[in-house]
Design a protein that fits this description.
The chain is an alpha/beta fold and 357 residues long. It contains twelve helices and 13 strands. The relative contact order is 0.11.
Length: 357
């Protein structure tokens, strides 16, 4: 049995055929999560649905308030969404909490660790964190691809044992949705994941922002972090219990060995780096072999780009700008610049805080 699980609920799960909010499904999922918690499992929810709730509110009984301005819908709908969750969890004698985040919260070291500590305190107090992107203030150029990406970041941040992505499809499908022979692929593991890439469609649901492309990419990253991922149909009755009891439902991504918390953060560093360290050809060759652990030393650095601080994530590249990996800076950009080329100087990135991609 898993100890800590992330459950991501997609817009398509929370939406009915008429495009409104499917409250019976929401109520049933809350009951399933309550049962899971009774068995001792810690649950963090990542939910979509604010825009859908907002659209219902703005259209109800007053056509003059009709709007498709996403930030307005999210602002109005987030209140109703959390109100629904609070009411349903109260009926199960469970307290829930709202956590709204932006992508910048994962980029900034202090925000990252503060957020993590808050999550852990909530779990210690048996409170269910319900997470959503803060769409009202999130800038388009630095927003999450979708809530699948957000859920994956939280899974890595909190060292979750598993993540369940609930969608309106049965899992990763073996062919076209309308082909009668198409079925959900039951198991994908690190040794055969590339062979299933051809089955991934870039189609998206009408209600949602994401698609299977993002889900597959998130699952691949979390597998490398040692986290089990399931993609399954959230409309199916009892889906959460079926998954955790080992029933053959949906698609299960079997993880590799667990890695350290630092490496998990770096596995999700794409788009979060505050600067770059460019290394010379010899250093790039040694790092790329992955045959032995080595730090990024000033003697092998060519240039430093950006104005990052100690503890920030930096991208490691070769002289031809080929990405080699990510690391946590052991000093600020200015200090590393002054030591470029020096032998015997302190490491710019220690090998314990370095992930080669």
């Amino acid at each position: 049995m898993f100890k800590r699980v992330i459950i991501k609920i997609g817009t398509s799960v929370l939406t009915n055929a008429a495009g409104g909010v499917d409250e019976p499904v929401l109520e049933r999922l809350v009951r399933e999560i309550a049962l899971l918690m009774e068995s001792g499992v810690e649950v963090i929810m990542v939910t979509s649905g604010a825009v859908g709730f907002g659209r219902e509110v703005m259209r109800s009984g007053n056509s003059s308030r009709h709007t498709e301005h996403t930030k307005v819908l999210a602002a109005v709908g987030q209140v109703r969404l959390m109100g629904a969750y609070a009411r349903l969890f109260d009926a199960q004698n469970i307290t829930c909490a709202q956590v709204l985040v932006t992508k910048d919260d994962f980029r900034d070291r202090d925000h990252y660790h503060t957020m993590r500590e808050t999550f852990l305190h909530l779990l210690d107090d048996k409170v269910v964190p319900i997470v959503n992107e803060n769409d009202v203030i999130a800038r388009k150029d630095v927003s999450f691809t979708d809530n699948d990406e957000l859920a994956g970041l939280i899974a890595a941040q909190l060292e979750a044992d598993a993540m369940i992505i609930l969608s309106s499809v049965e899992g990763v499908l073996s062919g076209d949705l309308h082909d009668p022979s198409t079925h959900a692929i039951a198991r994908i593991d690190p040794t055969n994941i590339d062979s299933y890439q051809k089955f991934i469609s870039n189609k998206k649901t009408l209600a949602g922002r994401g698609g299977m492309v993002t889900k597959f990419a998130v699952a691949r990253r979390l597998m490398a972090c040692g986290i089990t991922v399931y993609i399954a149909n959230g409309k199916r009755e009892g889906i959460v219990q079926s998954i955790l009891e080992g029933d053959t439902v949906g698609t299960r991504f079997v993880p590799a060995d667990k890695i350290s918390s630092v490496k998990r953060r770096l596995a999700y560093a794409d788009g979060f780096a505050m600067g770059e360290i460019v290394v010379n050809k010899r250093a790039a060759e040694l790092l790329s072999t992955k045959q032995h652990a080595m730090s990024i030393l000033p003697v092998g650095i060519v240039t430093v780009e950006g104005n990052f601080n100690k503890g920030d994530i930096v991208e490691i590249r070769g002289e031809l700008k080929k990405k080699i990996g990510f690391g946590i800076a052991a000093a600020d950009a200015g200090r590393i610049r002054t030591s470029i080329g020096l032998k015997g100087a302190r490491a710019a990135v220690h090998y314990d805080y370095l992930l080669i991609v």
